[in-house]
Amino acid sequence: MICHIDAGNGIPIYEQIERQVKFAVASGALIAGERVPSVREMATQTAVNVNTVARAYRQLQKQGV
What we know:
Elements: H1 13-27, H2 39-46, H3 50-63
């Protein structure tokens, strides 16, 4: 699963990651129980800071996604 980040669209990057993971779950691209890429893997794939990805993952975890 690779997220497509658009730094110029005005939406915070961590929120873009959150939205794309939620969409992947809703669309069935990411099945319940399936592992998402690690924080480091996602940061490398998206060329985003590790802390940004960690923030997105924490938010998703808080929301129960």
